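HUMAN:
Could you generate one sequence with tokenized structure?
ASSISTANT:
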Amino acid sequence: MPHQVILYAKPGCHLCEEALQLLNALRVEFDLTLAEIDITRDSVLHAKFFDQIPVLVIDDRLTFGAPIPWAAVRAALK
């Protein structure tokens, strides 16, 4: 069963763009589905995450905010 990964981001965020690139690279190694959500389209999400993006949620239980600990993300996907 693939991991469900959500990336909360916003346009023009270079850290968000880097996170998306790294997640796409991890798709080669791990079975995962990726959803990117633009926090600027939802006032609640914007208020919740505006100073933490990029934010990753894996399988609705693990959340990582910036700076994203990529070693921990890899471990969570194994």
